[in-house]
Amino acid sequence: MAQFVFESDLHGLLKLDTPIPNAPLARWQRKAKESNASVAGPGPSCQHQQHWPLPMKPANRSHSTSKTPSKTPGKSGSKIQSTPTKAGGDRYIPNRSAMQMEVASFLLTKENDSSEDTPTKKEQQKAWALNLNGFDVEEAKILRLSGKPQNAPEGYQNNLKVLYSQKTTPGSSRKNGRYIPSMPDRILDAPEIRNDYYLNLIDWSSQNFLAVALDNSVYLWNYSSGEIIQLLQMEQPDDYISSVSWIKEGNYLAVGTSNAEVQLWDIQQQKRLRNMTSHSSRVGSLSWNSYILSSGARTGHIHHHDVRVAEHHVATLAGHTQEVCGLQWSPDGRYLASGGNDNLVNVWPCAQGDSGDFAPVQTFTQHQGAVKAVAWCPWQSNVLATGGGTSDRHIRIWNVCSGTCLNAVDAHSQVCSILWSTNYKEFISGHGFAHNQLVVWKYPTMAKVTELKGHTARVLNLTMSPDGSIVASAAADETLRLWRCFEMDPVKKKEKAGSAKSSIIHQGIR
Question: Quick one: how many helices (H) and strands (E) in the chain?
Answer without folding.
Answer: 7, 28
